[in-house]
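Methods, example record. To illustrate the input and output format used throughout this study, we show the complete record for Ribonuclease H2 subunit B. The sequence lines were provided to the predictor; the line carrying structure tokens was produced by it.
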Amino acid sequence: GHFGVDCTEYLKDASKKMKSGLMFVKLVNPCSGEGTIYLFNMCLQQLFEIKVFKEKHHSWFINQSVQSGGLLHFATPMDPLFLLLHYLRKADKEGKFQPLDQVVVDDMFPNCILLLKLPDLEKLLRHVTEEKEIDKKKYYKYSKEKTIKWLEKKVHQTVSALKTNNINVSARVQAATFFFGDPVSSDKEEDYIRYAHGLISDYIPKELSDDLSKYLKLPEPSASLPNPPSKVRSCD
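The corresponding predicted structure is encoded as:
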């Protein structure tokens, strides 16, 4: 699930920020490589991304109070492995096994070390790395093969969620205008996979997104646009 959060209030009030265990941190965006503000829950050791919705004419009910207009910020749990992948791929240029505290290092975004405090870190890393243990210390190396398989699993989980929520992703519907409630049967499996691949691609660099697309055997997007949906359905 996700919850509404008023960023400005937390940023103003440091004592409240620490008491609630919520901390706004600037970390690398694993897709663009640029800085993005994330929310870190110190108590739960959990990472959230912040999605901003711009609404001019709506009121929102948050904690029994009405917030009208302006921006609504939603904090949504995010898999921290996407951020760790950024550093593992970067370190892989040296092509050797390294301890994690030498991999997750960033002068521009020093708060990246918070990622090392995450629970089940070793379990997470098994999805995307080869590991070695020397003198009770773990060393890691990025594995492209494992990563692609992990991303494929993510795509299929996303497809299941899209189907469960009856989200129409048919190729005839332009990506910008997907809508709810249409019978799932009208969508081809490939449309779902392509759409889910697009969603996952927001969290990985383009090169990895292209590799994943090939692995999923998605056809190259054609230059021609699909025909607009016909207003009259033929009965044949």
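Annotations derived from this record:
The first strand starts at residue 3 and ends at 4.
The first helix runs from residue 7 to 12.
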